[in-house]
Amino acid sequence: MEQTQYHGIFDSHAHYDDEAFDPDRDELLNHISQNGVCAVINAGCDLPSSHEGIALSQKYPFFYSSIGIHPHEAQSVTQETIEELRSLAQNPKVVAVGEIGLDYHYDLSPREKQREVFEQQLLLAKELSLPVIIHSREATAETLTLLKKYRPQGVVHCFSGSAETAREIVGLGMYLGFTGMITFKNTKHALEAIQAVPTDRLLLETDCPYMTPVPYRGKRCDSTMIALTAQKMAQLKNLPIQEMIDLARQNTCRLFGIEEGALG
Ligand code: NI
Fold this sequence. Notes:
Layout: E1 9-14, H1 25-31, E2 37-42, H2 47-59, E3 63-67, H3 79-88, E4 94-103, H4 111-128, E5 132-137, H5 140-150, E6 154-156, H6 163-171, E7 175-178, H7 189-196, E8 202-204, H8 226-236, H9 241-256
Parallel strand pairs: 1-2, 2-3, 3-4, 4-5, 5-6, 6-7, 7-8
Helix pairs in contact: 2-3, 6-7, 8-9
């Protein structure tokens, strides 16, 4: 964990259910607010992680959860899976359907099944009036086609696409989430994307335990390290770091329907 001089950090995408946090999850989460983090959304990837995210949100007031099936897991989805997601979404700490989408890089589920499950969950989100958290890897064209078809509220998380794609997503009324990837030396497109879109469309996220920002690469990421991502984003937007953190928090609260006053 990092000591940060900043406050009011909202990590809009984390995976605290991940086994990387098994040795010290409670220790970490108990102290995270003393290190500038005021809220976290845990992103579900399958039914167990969606359940676990909700369980953590019952334990920690600053903790919210999304529920959904990642494209990697699409193959296992049946109608019962969708029913279970629908019932999990009744919990008041569930703020989104996600992460859902298409992953044509790993192709861990057949593409046709990925599209089918993505569409089922876009419909579920619409029915529940919840925003979506989108995962899209090497599937930009098809992701955009489906976003245009269903017009959800939501965020494309861990955005690494072009400025042009960024403008198109923002044009649909959606948001873009950026991870520690923007601190990596070889990142170029994501930086241009940040510069291309209005500040009120940017979210900060860790995707922890993954995407650890420089200079901590190789270590396990947690929400306190987001300050380094905020620093890079602030530099690209010509803003003081704390202001960037505050704007990203306001954007996150607006998207997910969270009262800012409810945050610690
Ligand atoms: Ni993620």
